[in-house]
Amino acid sequence: MSLFTRVSLAVGLALLPHLVLAQAPAPIKPKVMLVTMFAPEAQTWIDRLALKQEVRVPGLSAEYPVIRCNTEDVCLLVTGMGQTNAAASTLALALSPKFDLRQSYFLIAGIAGISPKHGTLGTTAWAHYLVEFGTQWEIDSRDAPKDWPTGYIGINTKGPNEKPPLDYKTEVFELNPKLQAKAFALSQKVELTESQESSAWRKHYPAAPANQPPQVTRCDTLAGNTWFSGTRLSERAEVWTRLLTDNQGEYCTTQQEDNSTYEALLRASREGLVDIQRLAVVRAGSDFDRPYPGYSEVDNLLKYADQGGFVPALENLYRTGNPLVQAILKHWSAWEKGVPDA
Fold first, then answer.
1. Other C-beta atoms within 10 Å of 139: how many?
2. Where is the signal peptide (predicted)?
3. pTM
4. Are 279 and 108 in contact (CB under 8 A)?
5. Which domains, from first to last, does the chain contain?
6. Rounded distance, CA 108 to CA 253, Å?
7. Which strand (E) or helix (H) includes residue 3?
8. pLDDT under 70 in the chain at which residues?
């Protein structure tokens, strides 16, 4: 190898890191990152907010491999359904060098089962507490003591009304109450929609708010991969939420992912990659978690689609969440350093 060749090679190798850095695009800095779980939840946001830019992020779900963004600094993640997809996709995004999420607000917006004690089909609920339902001991209810309402009890407890020691550290999370209050204030007067089917179905329930038109409310959400349905399990969800929140929380919606998404963001927050205090969660009732009096417990699960709440729930997620999104965008100077007081 000639001297000239050796010198040229050495210079080229020395300059290579600088050339790579010069060619790498600056990370995207979303003001808002929307988090949905599957395509129907995402589509309304994609259409209404013109989320046309696609950014491929390694580690996302094979079904949803890109983050979608618009020109106004709003982006959207579709995690894939269930706890595993939610945690893996969220952490992949948080660790991606393609995004700078340190000042981003995260909005989880998804459909859920709804308690008739706190809402109806199409009701949207801003959560304060995220409660994990699956992290319990379970025995077949037919083998449980007669004074146990179900086969569920807290891990390392002696009965269904005893609070467990929370050894997993993911059983319950408290969201930023200031952000929840702000989100609710911005959206509480939004007019929500319902379908002919959901309007007819809610009238089977004997009391409000189940038999009234949907409204925006505040109550807490419960996560678990097992899609449960029925009066007894829903009542267990109420008890479990009160136990884990020391009687501060009020169960109203049931879904699969939110504790997993939160934990992924919490780990990223500990590394300074996101701010966990900038996370809000809204869920919309697409079906009732228990039947109306006289209706079959089994059919409430197997024929949940007959309730007609799916389409209005998707629309109402946008109607409820978008006021928060627009407030952040239009008044970024007030939101940039944290949730504003006024």
1. 13
2. 1-22
3. 0.92
4. yes
5. 27-135+170-335 (3.40.50.1580)
6. 14
7. helix 3-23
8. 1-23, 342
